[in-house]
Amino acid sequence: MARATIEGLAGVLVWTEADRFPAMARFYRDTLGLTPRSDKSDFINFDWNGVRLSVGVHAGVRGASREPLRVMLNLTVADIQAAHTRLAAAGVVFSRAPEREEWGGWVATFADPDGNILQLMQLPDRR
Question: Per residue in 89-114, pLDDT tens?
């Protein structure tokens, strides 16, 4: 019998409504510069060695996120200062500029077009 343990994270799916999907897809693909694994009219998917981030249309979702702090996506970067500079130049508004954390890493916070909170995270051993 296989062990009944959770072995990792397969991915995260961010739902949006149909009218908001084009802006969300452009943000993740073009503004953040993520390379799609698949890119359809109602679903876009990104993959890092089997861990997937997806944005898709869901009929039960309406408008921007009402509680944007409920879930936060952390995106790892090798150089947070360079990533922050590139994204700020692309129009991303940061609510928290890059700042060193007590655990040794760096964090910078911003939101996607639906108001979902994302963070750039530079881990201590990455630089």
Answer: 999 999 999 999 999 999 999 999 99
Distances (CA, A) of 33 to 61, 73, 91: 25, 16, 13
Stated pTM of the model:
0.89
* DSSP result, 27-88: IIIIIS-PPEEEE-SSEEEEEETTEEEEEEE-TT--SS-SSTTSSEEEEE-S-HHHHHHHHH
Q: How far apart are CA 22 and CA 29, in angstroms?
A: 10
Burial class (CB in 10 A: 0-12, 13-18, 19+), 122: buried
What is the C-alpha separation between 14 and 16, in angstroms, rounded?
Answer: 7
Residue 30 sits at φ, ψ, to 5 deg, of -90, -50
Question: Over the stretch 70-92, which tens digit does the pLDDT of each residue have?
Answer: 999 999 999 999 999 999 999 99
Q: Is 94 helix (H, G, I), strand (E, B) or coil?
A: strand
Report CA dihedral (10, 16, 20, 26) to the nearest 10 degrees: -10
| Residues in CB range of 58: below 8 A, 6 or more apart | 15, 16, 17
